[in-house]
Design a protein that fits this description.
The structure holds two protein chains of two kinds. By secondary structure, chain A is an alpha/beta fold. In chain A, α3 runs parallel beside α6. Chain A starts with 6 loop residues before the first strand and ends in an 8-residue tail after the last helix. The relative contact order of chain A is 0.18. By secondary structure, chain B is mainly α. Chain B has 15 helices and two strands. A two-stranded antiparallel sheet of chain B has the order 1-2. The chains are: A alpha/beta, B mainly alpha. Chains A and B meet through α2, β6 and α3 of A and α8, α9 and α15 of B.
């Protein structure tokens, strides 16, 4: 199995289970370089499971995940991260005992990228918070830090789980602009429930329902028309 | 440059100034015990405070260092420096070998598997290897050790100076670790191991290195005990004393730089003073621990530090001052 036609990520026939309980059935997904792909679905549909499996935190029962021509099955999460596939989880928990500076230093050291200017260009607020401990950041600031951390090392694919969940509307607007900017330099796969945001930024949408990918929408008109809502 | 170096060392030097002053008023054996005990606890303090691993098996590593030193000084050589070096190397070797097995475990299982190791070690030294360890009679080598140049380790006063400077160096080392990326990684793995992997770090390697550093420090303390007493018996690895480093770590203040020293002074002091009056002195240590836990788990140093800083506030950067405007 190879990634063709400029595809950076190809997921085929992915089955995932938590013990006896199956949560993802025969999932197929393909992402081309430079695309912003969104997975939408109700709570418990299997979206986060899909991202966590791609990032290496869950071992699928069957199927394949090919990133940049390499099968990720059996690789550990830190090995996948080093290949340039970064995951920003949903829970917005940063290292609370470490300052923003230390959080960024950790990411810099792991990736060898010590240029923080692109991060500050997207999130200037972080520059003002460098000496504040992660535990004292607001939800929005934590989200900025987590995405900023993941950006160091210039990942070729960024998986972001529910980036706008629980954020104030003004921050959601800012994040939308940031995501639009990011797609110019990296490929993004986002899990999101904010459908207006999804329709405004996505190149392709996958609708997930009860563990199945029930629709793949790549027609720009259909995306703008919020067609994905029908499948939820 | 000199100013920043002095600032960096000032806290450590202040702590040791306290020990040096105490040395003038307290008996030499008490001073020696405190310094060695604080080295013993430093390892566990690092494991628990930085990586989040509690261990009830520290006597096993203490025993590795002590017996390696004892075997050398009883059977082969006479130089205590060489004995201490061998104890250190033995600790390094053992932790290198068993570390990969232990650090994969969750913290609770890690605590228990270490306790099991201490039990195994105790019976190995008491029964199985009694032919070479002399069982409960132990190995006596005080008279075999020869005086050493520079600092004569067979002289208790000079031995105190040696352990004192060794502890000072170790404090500097642990303080340095705290300020490195590796120190940040340790704290991060304690808080959330998954998230560290998102960034591309292997938790296993971070924990293994922490295990090696911490328990080699413990083995070094074992070697120092061996040379100081000139005697080692299986009692040093006894699981009955497995809680000691845990208690002293919590008593002093988990993860704090001065916690091991403060805890060692408090614990040894209580043992020394209270045991003259009351047989079951551990009752008071237990009572104090309950109070510390109820007061917020900060330990003695964790509670005292803010009070000591108050009269002389430290300069701190004002984060996000703009936000508050």
């Amino acid at each position: 199995m190879t990634a063709d036609n400029g595809e950076i990520l190809v997921v085929e026939g992915l089955h995932v289970a938590y013990g006896e309980s199956k949560v993802l059935f025969d999932a197929h997904l393909s992402v081309r370089r430079g695309q912003l792909v969104t997975c939408v679905g109700r709570n418990g549909a299997g979206k986060t499971t899909l991202l966590r499996t791609i990032a290496g935190f869950l071992r699928p029962t069957s199927g394949s995940i090919v990133f940049n021509g390499t099968n990720l099955i059996a690789l550990r999460p830190y090995q996948i991260a080093r290949m340039g596939l970064k995951y920003v989880p949903q829970d917005k928990r940063v290292f609370s005992d470490l300052t923003v500076r230390e959080n960024l230093e950790l990411a810099s050291h792991a990736s060898g990228d010590y240029n923080w200017e692109p991060v500050f260009a997207h999130f200037p607020r972080l520059k003002q918070l460098l000496d504040r401990k992660g535990g004292y950041l607001s939800g929005g600031e934590r989200q900025m830090l987590m995405i900023g951390r993941a950006l160091l090392g210039r990942p070729s694919l960024l998986l972001i789980d529910e980036p706008t969940e629980g954020l104030a509307p003004s921050l959601v607007g800012h994040l939308q602009e940031v995501l639009k900017e990011l797609r110019k330099t990296t490929t993004l796969v986002i899990v999101e429930q904010n459908l207006p945001l999804v329709s405004a930024i996505s190149d392709k949408i996958y609708a997930v329902r009860e563990g199945h990918i029930v629709a793949e929408i790549s027609d720009p008109e259909a995306i703008r028309a919020n067609v994905c809502e029908r499948y939820l | 440059m000199l100013k920043s170096a002095l600032r960096w060392w000032s806290g450590i030097l202040a702590a040791f100034l306290v020990v040096a002053v105490l040395r003038l008023v307290m008996p030499l054996p008490f001073a020696n015990e405190i310094v060695i005990f604080s080295i013993y606890v430093m390892g566990h303090n690092f494991l628990l405070g930085r990586v989040g691993f509690i261990s009830f098996g520290q006597p096993a590593y203490l025993g590795v260092g002590a017996y390696a030193t004892a075997f050398y000084l009883f059977y082969f050589g006479y130089n205590p420096y060489a004995g201490i070096l061998l104890g250190l190397l033995a600790g390094l070797l053992v932790t290198l070998l068993i570390g990969p097995l232990f650090v994969r475990l969750r913290s609770d299982y890690f605590a228990l598997v270490n306790l099991a190791l201490a039990v195994i070690m105790y019976y190995l030294m008491e029964k199985v290897l009694a032919g070479i360890t002399h069982g409960d009679n132990g190995l006596w080598f005080l008279a075999r050790m020869t005086p050493t140049p520079v600092l004569d380790l067979t002289n208790p006063s000079q031995f105190f100076l040696f352990t004192f400077f060794l502890a000072l160096l170790l404090w500097g080392f642990y303080k340095y670790l705290d300020e490195t990326i590796y120190g940040a990684c340790c704290l991060a793995t304690k808080v959330n191991e998954d998230k560290l992997q998102f960034l591309g770090y292997s938790n296993f390697r971070i924990r293994w290195l922490a295990f090696i550093i911490a328990n080699t420090t413990t083995a070094l303390a074992g070697s120092l005990y061996a040379v100081y007493f000139g005697f080692v018996s299986p009692e040093i690895t006894s699981p009955h004393r497995a809680a000691d480093p845990v208690v002293v770590t919590i008593l002093g203040g988990v993860g704090t730089l001065y916690g091991p020293l403060v805890g060692a002074i408090a614990y040894t002091g209580m043992k020394d003073v209270l045991s003259r009056v009351i047989v079951n002195w551990e009752f008071f240590v237990g009572f104090l621990l309950v109070l510390i836990m109820l007061a917020g788990e900060k330990g003695i140093w964790g509670t005292l530090e803010p009070l000591l800083r108050r009269p002389l506030p430290m300069r701190r950067p004002l984060p996000a001052a703009e936000n508050r405007r």
